[in-house]
Specification:
A four-stranded mixed sheet has the order 4-9-8-6. The protein starts with a strand and ends with a strand. The chain has three helices and nine strands, in the order ββαβαββαββββ. It is elongated, with a radius of gyration of 25 Å. It has 151 residues and is an alpha+beta fold. A hairpin with a 2-residue loop joins strand 8 and strand 9.
């Protein structure tokens, strides 16, 4: 058996950066030509360890940024003015794109409209709690007030 350090995730074998035992022919004929692994030398093992540590640090920093953004969005109250009839029904609707634009204007945070969870577009005036996926599985509730536009 030969030892190899995986450069990419290989299904059924392991994740990138791990050292695995494989047959010499599999390493030489399959893994190395496809740049999926390299022979496990002392330098390759040290590089893999440093890469894993760097990725763990980046994940930790991303989680901290997501928590900070979530806290900021939790304190945010958006007011969206929209044309409405006398019964409070909107002419049209408030969509995820409009909410993303309102977050951009209020806090300067660029939020992808696909990360805003609306079961259906908002079609009436009132106060709504809108879920926004910040990243890393962290979500924030943004209080959104839809008011009738004064013309």
């Amino acid at each position: 058996m030969a030892q190899a350090v995986l450069l990419k995730d290989v299904e059924g074998l392991g994740e990138a950066g791990t050292a695995v035992d494989v047959s010499p022919g599999y390493l030489r004929n399959y893994l190395i030509p496809r740049k999926l692994a390299q022979p496990a030398t002392k330098g390759a093992l040290e590089d893999a360890q440093r890469r894993r540590e760097r990725e763990a640090e980046q994940e930790r920093q991303a989680a901290e940024r997501a928590d900070e953004t979530s806290a900021l969005l939790g304190k945010t109250v958006l007011t969206i003015n929209h044309r409405a009839g006398e019964d409070g029904k909107l002419f049209g609707s408030v969509t995820a794109a409009e909410i993303a634009d309102a977050i951009q204007a209020a806090r300067g945070l660029k939020v992808d409209r696909k990360k805003i969870r609306l079961e259906q577009p908002i079609r009436e005036t009132g106060t709504f709690m809108v879920e926004v996926e910040v990243g890393g599985g962290v979500t924030a509730s943004v209080k959104t007030i839809v008011a009738e536009a004064k013309e």
